[in-house]
Design brief:
Number of strands: 10
CATH architecture: Alpha-Beta Complex
Number of domains: 1
Shape: globular
CATH topology: Inorganic Pyrophosphatase
């Protein structure tokens, strides 16, 4: 609890009266970055790409999947993260012709589990074990790779090397091809690096710092508006 009981009460009322925005209103979790809350937007059976509408927090249809490939894992975002300058700087390799930019979205996360979810728009606890450094048109668009906490098949995994290599290959293939039309001569997406758990935690921490800079004192602003009404 904070030292301001009025603020705490106002936040409690907000939580009771309104559904939390999955990006801004859900906590990343007290064990972050070793265990993080993930909001799932897509499940492997989806043939439509869903994503959170940034303004409303509702899950919306982004586009139908144009090609035959589907995401091989649960896929979504980590609340209260933002891919900004810190994430981009960490992904810029020596010798790059120009510095990367952040893609301006929350941090993406792929979650492995033996259990099937029938739909998205759910929260779960995930353990990051690594990530894919994905560059999309000179923008950093990292994909954290995680396992569902307590999962019978993957819950023991602590490092990306603990996962079957074909699963990582499937993830790489999906992200390298899901935006590419068959007639394209150049790939708009590249994955120059696959990294482990320590680097994944660093990327998450940088995205949290980028979020705090992009949305400073967001909770305090909510409370101020509420108390004035």
């Amino acid at each position: 609890m904070s030292e301001d009981p009025g603020r705490d009460r106002a936040l409690e009322l907000l939580g009771l009266l309104f559904q939390a925005h999955p990006w801004h209103g859900v906590a990343i979790g007290p064990e972050a970055p070793r265990v993080v809350t993930a909001y799932i937007e897509i499940v492997p059976t989806d043939t439509v790409k869903y994503e959170v509408d940034k303004a409303s927090g509702h899950l919306k249809v982004d586009r139908p999947q144009q090609l035959s490939n589907v995401c091989p894992t649960l896929y979504g975002l980590i609340p209260r993260t933002f891919c900004g300058e810190r994430v981009a700087a960490f992904g810029t390799e020596p010798g790059d012709s120009s510095p990367l930019e952040g893609d301006g979205d929350p941090m993406d996360i792929c979650v492995l589990s033996e259990r099937q979810l029938s739909h998205g728009a759910v929260l779960l606890q995930a353990v990051p074990v690594g990530g894919l450094r994905l560059i999309d048109r000179n923008q950093a668009d990292d994909k954290i790779v995680a396992v569902l906490k307590g999962d019978a098949a993957y819950g023991h995994c602590q490092e990306i090397g603990d996962l079957p290599e074909p699963l990582i290959d499937r993830l790489k293939h999906y992200f390298l091809t899901y935006k590419r039309p068959p007639e394209a001569k150049r790939d708009p997406v590249r994955i120059p690096r696959v990294y482990g758990a320590a680097e994944a935690r660093e990327v998450i921490e940088r995205s949290r710092a980028d979020y705090r800079e992009r949305f400073p004192q967001l909770e305090d602003r909510f409370v101020e508006v509420l108390q004035r009404s």
